[in-house]
Specification:
Elements (H helix, E strand, L loop, with lengths): L7 H14 L3 H43 L4 H15 L7 H19 L1 H4 L5 H14 L11 H11 L1 H8 L3 H5 L4 E2 L2 E2 L4 H4 L7 H21 L6 H17 L4 H24 L2 H20 L2 E6 L5 E6 L1 H19 L4
Antiparallel strand pairs: 1-2, 3-4
Length: 337
């Protein structure tokens, strides 16, 4: 198991539970994908809100970077001031994104290993099945390969007597495992069955839906992508399109379902947190905070002769006075060093 797929045992329990009620791998995967998307929806809401707010700050940050391109210290100071005025954090969206990625890795781990997570065959038995298949059936399986469990299920269906001792009471469950989805065998690899097979439909759909998700996601973020960031989603789509033709069709079904649910989710989130509306709200918040900082407050200030006087100062002036006082105290403290 991948170090990133540590959630797989929990998610696998969910998929196995669904398969008990709907003994079809394709439908189990679709319902499983829907459930995981629903569970992650609160995180997606938080991430979209953070992304939409960042899109409002992006032009301001670019202006600061351009204006103080030759003065990094001043640039950092202005960035800090912007964050104070706007009340935002550049890392606010990192946690939801990280959790979301860990869940996705866990989901992929489960989808790749139906023998282990859906049929509950132990890893030790699976390794013994690989050894037995290689020695008895003349195969050259790799126990660590992500397609090996799909291959093993088909080998058991074709040669049940060979694996009966190893699988014991699990034999019938493996033999009767339903890989068919609308007449398509989800264990097939597109590159093995040819371009004119009906199984090609699902990998093609997975690529098309991924492109649609890229378009909608970029538009709903409200951010201007430049250079590598603009090209990366499309490069990933091309790479993914190649991968879908080299792995079993079941993986493409999962990605297609996931992309369709993501597409609906993206449209809902854009309605909830529209970047243009968020930009207007952020601008109003900044103006309100700046106006508050300009309001005069009465404070006691110690003059150079030690006398205390009451002054009307703005928040910005008060911050400057406090900074000067802190520097004076620091100088007094270390004057002999």
């Amino acid at each position: 198991m991948s170090i990133f797929g540590f959630l797989a045992p929990v998610l696998g329990w969910v998929m196995e539970w669904i398969y008990r009620f709907i003994p079809n791998y394709g439908w189990t995967m679709i319902i499983f994908t829907l459930l995981t998307r629903l569970l992650m929806f609160p995180l997606s809401v938080k991430q979209q809100k953070s992304t939409a707010r960042m899109s409002a700050f992006q032009p301001m940050m670019q202006e600061i970077q351009k204006k103080y391109a030759n003065d990094k210290q001043r640039q950092n100071e202005e960035m800090m001031k912007l964050q104070q005025d706007a009340g935002f954090s550049m890392t606010a969206g990192c946690l939801p994104m990280a959790i979301n990625m860990f869940v996705i890795f866990g989901v992929i781990e489960v989808v790749y290993r139906p023998l282990q997570y859906v049929l509950l065959v132990s890893k030790d038995v699976i390794n013994e099945m690989v050894t037995l298949a290689n020695e008895t059936l003349g195969t050259s399986l790799d126990a660590a390969h992500y397609t090996v469990q799909n291959t093993l299920i088909n080998l058991v269906k074709q040669n049940p007597d060979t694996f009966s001792d190893l699988l014991g009471d699990k034999l019938d469950a493996v033999v009767n495992f339903n890989f068919t989805f609308f007449g398509i065998d989800l264990s097939q690899v597109p590159s093995d069955v040819g371009l004119f097979s009906v199984a090609i439909i699902i990998p093609v759909l997975s690529v098309v839906t991924m492109i649609l998700v890229n378009v909608v996601t970029l538009s709903m973020s409200g951010q201007q992508m430049n250079g590598t960031m603009k090209i990366l989603p499309w490069a990933m789509s091309i790479m993914f399109g190649f991968i879908t033709f080299t792995v079993p069709v079941g993986f493409s079904l999962y990605y297609t379902a996931s992309n369709l649910f993501a597409l609906v989710q993206s449209i809902l989130l854009k309605k909830m947190y529209n970047p243009e509306k968020i930009k207007q709200q952020v601008q109003e918040e900044i103006e309100a905070k700046r106006a508050e900082r300009k309001k005069k407050k009465q404070v006691k200030v110690t003059a150079s002769d030690g006398a205390e006087v009451v002054k009307d100062v703005s928040q910005a002036e008060l911050d400057r006075i406090r900074l000067e006082r802190a520097r004076q105290m620091e100088d007094e403290r270390y004057k002999d060093e």
